[in-house]
Amino acid sequence: MIAVDEVRDKAAVVTGGASGIGFAMARKFLSEGMSVAIGDIEADALDDAVRALRGAAGSARVIGLRADVTAFDDVARLCHEAERTFGGLDVVCANAGVETGGRFLDVAPEAWRWVMDVNYFGTLNTARAALPILERSDEGHLVITGSLAGFASGTPFMTPYCATKMAIHGLAESLEVELRASASSVSVHLLAPGPVQSRMIDAERNAPAGVPINEDPERRRAMEDFRARQSAEGLPAAQVADLVVEAIGERRFFVLPHRERAVAALRRRLEWVETGRTPESRVAGT
Ligand SMILES: NC(=O)c1ccc[n+]([C@@H]2O[C@H](COP(=O)([O-])OP(=O)(O)OC[C@H]3O[C@@H](n4cnc5c(N)ncnc54)[C@H](O)[C@@H]3O)[C@@H](O)[C@H]2O)c1
Predict the structure, then answer these.
(1) What Pfam families is this protein classified in (predicted)?
(2) Is residue 284 part of a domain?
(3) Percent helix, strand and coil across the chain, each rounded to 5?
(4) CATH number of 166's domain
(5) Fewer CB near the last or first residue (10 Å), C or N of the chain?
(6) Which residues are near ligand 1 (CB < 6 Å)?
(7) Predicted local confidence at residue 58, as pLDDT
């Protein structure tokens, strides 16, 4: 097993690094002695995050770039800039994500496309931009943020989010097996949490003009319930970041902050496959 402190003196990129899980990962990498480049679409939040991280670690080890993961060139620039500034790149976290939902026919095609663009194509862009650079490291790590929703198919009123997270899990699992088969120096890690304290519940703040927000009262009520549960039951993002660094150190693929819930979701899915009977509706953590 590789010791956790072997990630010291390395450099990391985190997309969606201005808030929540991404910010916590950036802070954890810095505390491990690494340098960090964060990218985000929210300019003010990015400035605040860079200032906070520099306050803790000094300005030489932190850079921030406005990078929209839906644009391949933005993510490529972020990765190249990190490699150039820090003399190498060892860890890339494809983390940026958004959520929208509601009753299936109430979700506009533009909203579907936005969630698919950020969550799925954003992850794909990041993986495609990062891999050739990570391959130049002795030991590269691509950390992909999925979700329990990527295991627990059948979450009502969250069809776009679930579809993207299942697609991301498929991408991460296939890529990891492909890289192992070709003896690549890069490992993939799939982070699949349940509820974590973050600003995810307000993800629609980043919806581009032209994406209609579903104001259906039932959807709004469900979101407020989720907000209450997330702040009451959600894990602190810092705990999730600790687990990510542990998994990198052990070269472990799955990072499961809610392991029992992940296993229960997969059991439920297997039973669905085996019996063909649709399970009772329930709302899972994102
Ligand atoms: N919070 C949870 O309960 C939870 C659970 C499972 C998975 N996740 C996943 O964790 C990841 C991080 O989310 P979070 O919970 O920290 O939420 P968050 O809203 O706090 O952070 C997400 C960050 O992504 C940024 N972002 C949004 N669109 C972007 C784009 N196009 N390009 C670049 N950056 C963009 C946001 O500005 C924000 O800083 C997401 O992939 C999310 O799906 C979250």
Answers:
(1) adh_short
(2) no
(3) 55, 15, 30
(4) 3.40.50.720
(5) N
(6) 15-16, 18-22, 40-42, 45, 68-70, 95-98, 118, 122, 145, 147, 193, 195-196, 198-200, 203, 206, 230, 234, 286
(7) 81
